[in-house]
Design brief:
This protein is mainly α. Helix content is about 65%, strand content about 0%. It is built from four helices and no strands. Helix 2 packs antiparallel against helix 3, helix 2 packs across helix 4 and helix 3 runs parallel beside helix 4. The chain is flat, with a radius of gyration of 14 Å. The termini are far apart.
Amino acid sequence: MPVDHYENFPVASWLLPARLRRPVEAIYRFARSADDIADEGDAPPAERLAGLAAYHAALDRIERGEMPDDAVFGPLATAVRDHAIPLAP
């Protein structure tokens, strides 16, 4: 996974069991991109809030079982679907 930041995730991810690398990468990509919306660049606050609201809406769609096909939410939805822990009734 290309990372434009000075993060150590690409190296540290090899410490994970192979079966967890893709799901953790999807979660990391989501978190990193949400963080970038919140505090990178020079977008005004209203634009940042709108971007975060769009992320919230995408998470709601994943929760409903919808499968997005974009680079951030598609892999995240797959990770959630394939690795979800059922909640107790």
